[in-house]
């Protein structure tokens, strides 16, 4: 199994989240691309992702997952106790996504943003589209 994670490349929290995932994804299950990149835009078009989606997006087995569904599915494949968070999938999606949306709406205010995407190191570059 492999997946592609699309993230907001100018969001500091999103960038830190990608670094967090990379450190715990020892099997290199995931590849990454920013929503703003050409590759990201192509994936969004290919999967008919609504333009109002402001979220981590996981494309896995040709299906898109948004918000908490994406985050929890990603946790399921990370090393360590992070797998246990997948158990939160039993919480009804509207409740999970409500809290996700509140956080997402404020993430730039709380964590700031960059002028451009962070460039990955040469050894990690192969994991970015």
From TrEMBL:
Task: Please provide an example of a Pfam family that matches this protein in its UniProt record.
Answer: DCC1-like
Offer an example of a GO molecular function term for this protein: protein-disulfide reductase activity
Recorded hits in PANTHER family, A to Z, give: DUF393 DOMAIN-CONTAINING PROTEIN, THIOL-DISULFIDE OXIDOREDUCTASE DCC
* Descriptive protein name: Thiol-disulfide oxidoreductase DCC family protein
